[in-house]
Amino acid sequence: MTIIDRHIMREISRYFGWILLTVTLVYISADFFDKIDKLIESELPFAKAALFFFSRIPFEHLIPASVLLSVLVVFGLMGKYNELTALKTSGISIYRCIKAPLIVGVGASLFLILCAEMLLPIVRSTANRYWLEAGKEVQINSRRQDAWLRGDGFIAHIRHFDAGKSMAFDVSINFFDSRFRLVRRIEAHRIHIQASRWACYNTVEQNLNPVKGEPTVRHHARLDMPVFFAPDDLKHGVRAASEMGVLELAAHIRTVSAEGYDTTTLRVDWQAKLAFPLACILLAVLAAAIAGRHRRGQGLAPVVVVGLGMAFCFWVIQSFSLALGYAAIMPPMLAAWIPIFIYAGTTAICLIRAE
Fold this sequence. Notes:
This protein is α+β, with helices and mostly antiparallel strands. It has helices at 3-34, 36-42, 46-55, 59-80, 83-89, 94-97, 99-135, 231-237, 246-258, 264-275, 278-291, 300-326, 332-354, and strands at residues 139-143, 146-151, 154-162, 167-176, 182-193, 198-208, 215-225. Strand 3 and strand 4 form a beta hairpin.
């Protein structure tokens, strides 16, 4: 590795650290003020509250964006002070200049993989448990998508919960009176959990007759019920794909599929876990290619704006593609990888034009 490569890597790493720290603090501040009311009511200790807010940081998005911005700033400054021009007149092509950003992108990808596999699943699971314990309204005990819930006068069991579709499958809800006697039982094959009501499908309802002491049974194709707890509480209580590593999620998909439930959402998330770390590499090279076209006398702002626009388009394409995968309109593998393929071609075109 040459002196120039080490210099560029050192500058990119320095700006990467400051940019990642800045955007992280901005995100935590916005998230804190959004949840400050519930935080005060919960009386959560400072250490647990800090862990909860740390777990909510979307490092999967912030790290690639920070890599992009750091490379744009470094190469933009090099272009502004004619350092890129000096390198090109010395016979160094743009393909040689992307060596340092490429190494930084690979390092950021490996760091993101380690965080997603080892740190974030444990932190997010623990933080969600703390947050639910502080709520005290509904107690949730879950293992992956299987959950037990206990609230005021009821105990419910959800065999499988699809957070992406807000659907619960094979649900049993038991209602008790003040003396903890079972007075009502509802079994539903599928429940669509909404903010204002529950839509229960293929439901069997049993009500205890206080006179005869025998239950009356009724069948409903659809039964609307009031909301017993917030849907977000259940999403926090049931382990999401972001709280599992690649191998654990793959094993969970096999288990859920063997039980006969739809695994489309989980398979899309699994493919996204494999594809997303490559965004660090692509965006690093793309930033170098965009900044490499810097013209003499051009300011740094246009380069940064163009790069941010490209990054924003990447997140839009990825979100739209994943949404198509969740809706089973697009195969899970294609939904997760098509943004990578599109931007790989875009990066190649930008490199050719920069050269």
